[in-house]
Amino acid sequence: MDSDRYERKTNRMSDIQASAAAPQENFAALLDEQLGGSTLEGSVLRGRVVAVEGDNVIIDVGLKSEGRVAMKEFAKAGEDGEIQPGADVEVFLERMEDRHGEVMLSRDKARREEAWNLLEKAFEKAERVTGHIYGRVKGGFTVDLSGATAFLPGSQVDIRPVRDVTPLMHKPEPFQILKMDRSRGNIVVSRRAVLEEDRADQRKELMESLKEGQVLTGVVKNITDYGAFVDLGGVDGLLHVTDISWRRINHPTEALSIGQQVQVQVIRFNPETQRISLGMKQLEADPWEGVSAKYPVGTAFTGRVTNITDYGAFVELEPGIEGLVHVSEMSWTKKNVHPGKIVSTSQEVEVMILDVDENKRRISLGLKQVQSNPWDDFLEKHPVGTTLSGEVKNITEFGLFVGLPGEIDGMVHLSDLDWEKTGDEAVKDYTKGQTVDVKVLDVDIEKERISLGIKQLASDPFESAMEGLKKGEVVTCTVTEVTDGGIEVAISDGATGFIRKSDLARDRSDQRPDRFAVGEKVDAKVTQIDRKTRKISLSIKQLQVEEEKKAMAEYGSTDSGASLGDILGAALTKAKDQAAQAEATKAEGDTSEEGEEQK
Q1: Are 336 and 295 in contact (CB under 8 A)?
Q2: What confidence score (pLDDT) does residue 24 get?
């Protein structure tokens, strides 16, 4: 092989020396004719591979010497090169010879020149070009366009951000040339522009044929808290979280993943806004059909707690069928407690069907209804009139709450604390945590209320004082307090009364409370007894009027012409005479007893 090369080189030199005999002015022309002229530099020549030496390829392009080209320049981007002797190739002539006397050739530049010519035509016509992504650089990727290297920005790889570009590497992909600068050797391409153009065509075609109820196949493109966007091929549709499945889904990721292929149905389509609403559950049978017959009211079922809120807990009876246990239906005794403290997510619970609304797709459930009612149990074991002991759980402005058997509370109203003291005074005698004896007064199962009493454990002193006392009776009482409106009096132990200012005397001038003093005894007539309010009303005025009527009947009349003063005077005189006669009779009796003793 070396001898052939040497022979070719010797023949070329002989030709040059032979031409030296020609006139000097023709020497340059003859040399240019033999060598092809210096204008060949910077152009693409066709040559033949004469040898492969290690990593170099020896190529003869018909000049005075061969050129060397690195084997890697015959490889496509990202691949290993391979070339055989005798193959015809195109190379770029950089210089006629280097310091070693060899022609400087480049396969890369030849391919690049050829590629640039084709790319410029495609750029002018806005045509797509095919290339291979083969490397990563800062801000994007490098693309081989049949020998020319182009830059693909990261934002131009796809319509949406691509986390992993590996599946696109070393594969033929269409690109759109965005910018070219041959002098600087810069080419910027975009794959996204090609996809958007294809997407627009697909979108137009899809929009023309789209209609509600149509079933399509798409790919999950993006997932949010409220649903997922599905690529239908050029257009996206929203698959809301409530339309993914008949069963409750808290987040779309429970049923979907990005890149997943799904079958969906077009629920709503607005041609003006081009908004598409999709559904997956609509392709399945509706579990709510005939739910009333399947879950009759009053029947107990077992379900699983799927979600807990401030107002209750959702229980799944079967996939797609859920009911709500309101917080008020969770426990007989635990009031104002968060549902999360009674049940937990995924817990299996027994519930009772309280109400079914098939149209609104609502089922009301009860948790406490499958348990015994503590109010029924209490009334059965502790009927009205039973005496119990309990701990004071709370003290409020209207009474005491006392803990009772069955983890329920009863209330002692302020009016049921003491017979004598007012409620505000009596409640001060009790403290939280104190054990007290109470009497069951009433049990209201529907309202879940138990009325208790403490004063009922002892007899009512007012009733004892009222024995024998009746309306119209004249009593002697003692003044206990003087007020502007009248006087308060004590009738007997445990009974008090009140005489209003207008009832203090028959004459208006004498109706003055200040006429009386505390401790003074007065006679008055009972006018009213109110056992509910435990009050007795009395009147001195009515007693005086009654006495006057009796005096008029006995000592005078309206026909005699006597005045009231005369009649009362006569009555008083008679009363004095009777009193004097009684004293005399008593004195005579004492004298005769004394004489008998002396005898």
Answers
A1: no
A2: 44
